[in-house]
Write the structure tokens for this entry.
Amino acid sequence: MKLQELKGYFAVLGIVAASYSASAQLTPSKLIDPANMDLSVKPGDDFYQYASGSWIKNNPVPAKETRWGSFNVLRDFNIIAVKGLVHDAAADKNAAAGTPTRRVGDFYTAAMDSLTIEKLGYTPIKADLARVQKIKDLSGVLTEVSNMRTSGIAGPMFGFYVAQDRKNVNKYLPSFSQGGTSLPDRDYYLKDDSRSVKIREAYTTYMTTLFSLTGNSAAEATKKAATVMNIEKQLAAAQMSRLEMRDPYKTYNKFTVADFSKTTPHLNWKNILTQLKVTGQDTILVSSPKFFTSLDGMLKSVPVADWKTYLEWNVLKSSAPNLSSPFVNAAFAFNQVQTGQRVQTPRWQRMASATDQNIGELLGQLYVAKYFKPEAKARMTELIKNLRTAFETRIKGLDWMSAETKEKALAKLHAFTPKIGYPDQWKTYDGLVITPTTYFQNLRNADVWRYNEMVSQLGKPVDRTRFGMTPPTVNAYYSPTMNEIVFPAGILQFPFFAPEADDAINYGGIGAVIGHEMSHGFDDSGSQYDKDGNLRNWWTAEDKAKFEEKTKALGEQFDAYTVLDTIHVNGKLTMGENIGDLGGLNAAYTAFKLTKQGQSNEKIDGFTPDQRFFLSWAQVWRGNILDESAAQLIKTDPHSPGPYRTIGAPVNMDAWYEAFDVKPGDKLYKKPDSQGKDYIQKNYW
């Protein structure tokens, strides 16, 4: 599954998928550098500014970026490392056919052949557009919807993927989800605030431009853009909100194929599954049945001619970033309005990333061989063991949870499967044709290969060896259905982790990340899955009620944070990640206190061990972001912005107050009143 599909099942750390490699020798002063701080600010007034103020001031967002922080710095380090790998692979004329080096080299060579790409214009999609124009009736529309998906062209109307049955995780099932829209969130179609209107206008301009570039007159292009907007607005109105989609029970709807077809008279799911290359399956999962009944109504009310225009647009939008420069520039102009990015990302960087996205486990083999240190995996194994011990201690110490529920929680914790660095068994991409001369066809071939690999899982045992991210990725995730915590090689670098760093740095960095992913198993969503990964309640009613009361308080804390103008953090949307941060940092601190440094008061560069621990956490989240991107992410991202991830967990920890002598009257002080209100950490995870 692609990452956007994985996000429905994985709780990720919340970083733009990026990678890096750094080889600079680290010293204690480089690990926590006072020059990056603003020591004129009291930590109890603004811990984010205190920990990172000078760095933030001196590191504005570069023109080619939408935000700039620790992760972006790491990405730049790593993308240069990846650039070296793909360049070397492309230059290696002696690499044997079929080897990772040869295949990576061929893919990147074709991707960088801009002369051929410019010459071709939109020739690579002319056959697709012509096929759409030949459609005669609704049956033809639906056949083409399936064809686009199996041919790697696009995924119109709805989402389709193969996933574990969340109530029987040892089995894969065909799964259908709401979809069919292009803007980042349904609200952009349905709300009339100035930002939503501006984005819709830019989207209309984008559609008009692409329709014009493919031979339509100005009037035709304008009419087609309006047709697509009308269809997508109806699809958006039928969709559940992001907040509703966080409920795993609401999105779990199992049907027999025959019964689901009865709810959608214009959609014969037996025929559709056959067209999607799915055979021998009589049961499906549907995330939003209401969406499909609405879609069925649209199939009756929307003319076939309009559906043809909609399918034409799906060909265009999915292909534009990989065609000649007029298409690429139009796509970027639309992206600029959404994110504020000022200049296009350099082609070599986009194409290195495309190599990772499409053949990531071929590139990953080259990356791991050169940049992943065996001692990093050994140290991570030790840290995970220590964090699991700390989490166990914390669960056992909860005074609000019954012994019955504790037993189930501990069983789940002990059942976590950790994965570190890279998969034990690499994907071979057998059958995937890559040539050094046909970039667009290479992309199509890769999409078709991924699709066929996905549907081939049906009827087979669930593969628990897979990684949902490629090795160079700087991120991590928890999968509730697998009950696994996964840390790709790319994240095992500073500021998260450094073999030579003191424990305060590693526990405040990667230790908190490990704890974060573990905490996802017990957040408001992950806690609804049992130790085997099945969606099944394991709580007593009383304990569940107490837990929900605590999550409500945490949501209120984050609701109060202002991001931009009148825009606030959405405490409910970000709940799972906020619990991950709070539980993870607490568990990391508990584990840190078991180390020799954690039990001492010996200062390094003037900072105590506890201060270094919290400063390590803080420097991970420092950064700047463009207003446009900040406004978009508050709607679409289940993670709180960096400044509030920096302070959101520490202000609920006694240790932070003590480390920085935070007192009543300080702006961040939120110790409990006589009833113990406003103090979330105590007796949480």
In short: The first helix runs from residue 3 to 6. The domain at 122-322 is CATH 1.10.1380.10 (Neutral endopeptidase; domain 2).
